[in-house]
Amino acid sequence: MDIHKFKVKDLKLLLDVNSGALHIIDDLTWDILDILSDDIRQIKGKYHVKSIPEKQRDILDIFSENIVSRLKDRYPAESIIEAQKELQSLKDRGLLFTAPVEFPQPSDEDSFPVKALCLHISHDCNLRCRYCFAKTGGFGRNRSHMPEEVAVKSMDFIAEHSGSRRNLEIDFFGGEPLMNFSSVKAAINRAKEIEKEKNKNFRFTLTTNAILLTDETIDYLNRENISLILSLDGPPEINDLMRLNIDGSGSYHDVLPNIKKAVKSREGKNYYIRGTYTKKSLNFSDIVLHLADQGFQNISLEPVVSIDKDYSIERTDIPVLYEEYDKLAGAYIERIKAGKPFNFFHFNLEIFKGPCLLRRLKGCGAGTEYLAVTPEGHLYPCHQLVNYEDFRVGDLESGISNHEIRKNFHKMTIFQKEKCPDCWARFFCSGGCYANAYSINKDIKIPDETGCALQKKRIECALGIQVLLKREKINWRQGFL
Q1: Chain centroid to CA 134: how far?
Q2: Distance from C-alpha of 386 to C-alpha of 375, rounded to nearest angstrom
Q3: Please, which residues have CB within 8 angstroms of residue 356's CB and are 6 or more apart in sequence?
């Protein structure tokens, strides 16, 4: 019985994990499912298995007299029987208690089309953020910038290794990429040539701390239709705890005017405000609402990934953060109803279409269809794993040389990761972030437990929000992003 039931605001919800069907249920059905879950645990214990053997599935008797006898003091018998009939109907229609699907194992390929590159335009930064996974921009190496010829060669590399894929994605990253803007322009100029030569289509994203967002730079980014990820952690008393200038002063008042100018110049579209919350800012729902009140409509606020720091999130913080997500979900819905919506990245979950099966099983495509390029032209599975020399897969000059690493990522699905095969959220989170897993556990197969707990809560809130909006026939996303 692979199901998950949970509450969001006044809703009680039931997710059938294997089919993805989501149901609104009442108190009676909730209590029936508690009894059925007890029965399942006894069956699993009897057979010493994690899931019910196929030949024993009929033991799951929705019409068990045990259910009626255990609930008859709280509900009328006829109501219990009617609820049982409804559950049986959902089961018969393949919308509840569905059996696990057998997925084919990935092949033994050693050549994979690449659709996205993250260019580390600069291994340097003009801020000194305390929590920076890039070690304040230098990734633990000598600070450096990507030469224009490496940026150009990166465009040739993805064109050559993208196979039949037409739509390609380039992320300009750092450190701070605007410290080396000439290489950004060189890459874009070469991409335009490739579009004509090879019938490719490039889309660009640039992540910036906004210090160097001048009018001229903003005009260029808008003209080239480059999506922006703008870093800001919230109001000054929060932002300036972590996001510091080189001299140790806070950066909020330096960057906020530039960020607002950039957002206004593109009419509030094609950007995200991206922040990080830490143990020092556990009241992150207030931070998100502060950003929304500043006029920002596309917001992402992520938990810091770290251990043994004074700002690291600990397991004891999780109950507080659950309350924060519930609080934010409530405010999110109320603002939508009041005609003042904003788009919170982690609540932006599409339950009626959703990602393809491969993305549900494997996640982001790191190491196969997505690679990162260092200023020297070295290739890594993703922008965060650049921190670890053992993950280098090759370079632009010689191509892919360490095929074993790419094969490992290619074969990695949720069924190879620890605890993921039994997790109700597996088809939504796809096993979480490889780099976060390695950062915390030194193994890409072992997800970060704290990160998992927060991810599951976000998914619950996102599912509940989508159900509430659909129930009230509210469609508000048009015009965002």
Answers
A1: 19
A2: 11
A3: none
Rounded Cα distance between 2 and 74, Å, is 26
State which amino acid sits at residue 269.
Answer: K
Lowest mean pLDDT among 43-47, 62-66, 119-123, 282-286: 43-47
So what's the pLDDT on residue 112? Answer: 78
Instruction: Note the pLDDT tens digit of each residue in 218-265.
Output: 999 999 999 999 999 999 999 999 999 999 999 999 999 999 999 999
CA 34 to chain centre: 31
Backbone angles phi, psi at 170, to 5 degrees: -125, 125
**Residue at token pair 């029987």:** 81
Q: Is the pLDDT of residue 478 over 90?
A: no
Task: Give per-residue pLDDT as tens, 169-196.
Answer: 999 999 999 999 999 999 999 999 999 9
Q: What length is written for the chain?
A: 481
| Cα separation values, 131 from 127, 135, 275, 463, Å | 11, 8, 12, 30
Mean pLDDT over 158-165 rounds to: 94
**Do 155 and 188 meet the contact criterion of CB atoms below 8 Å apart?**
no
Beta strand segments in 144-287, E: 144-145, 167-173, 201-208, 227-231, 271-277
E-strand ranges in 226-288 read 227-231, 271-277
What residue segments make up the domains of the chain, in order of their start?
3-102
Number of other residues whose CB lies within 10 A of the CB of residue 399 = 12
Structure tokens of 73? Answer: 């003091």
Nearest-angstrom CA–CA distance, 184 and 178: 8
pLDDT digits (tens, 9 = 90+) for 384-417: 999 899 999 999 999 988 989 988 898 888 988 8
- Return all residues near 122 (Cβ < 8 A) that are at least 6 apart: 137, 144, 145, 146, 174, 175, 176, 177, 179, 180, 375
Q: How many other CB atoms sit within 10 Å of the CB of residue 291?
A: 23
Q: What is the pTM of this model?
A: 0.91
Rounded Cα gap, residues 194 and 475, in angstroms? 39
Query: In angstroms, rounded to a whole number, what is the distance separating the alpha carbons of residues 279 and 368?
Result: 34
Question: Which of residues 382 and 102 earns the better pLDDT score?
Answer: 382
**Residue 262 phi, psi (nearest 5):** -65, -45
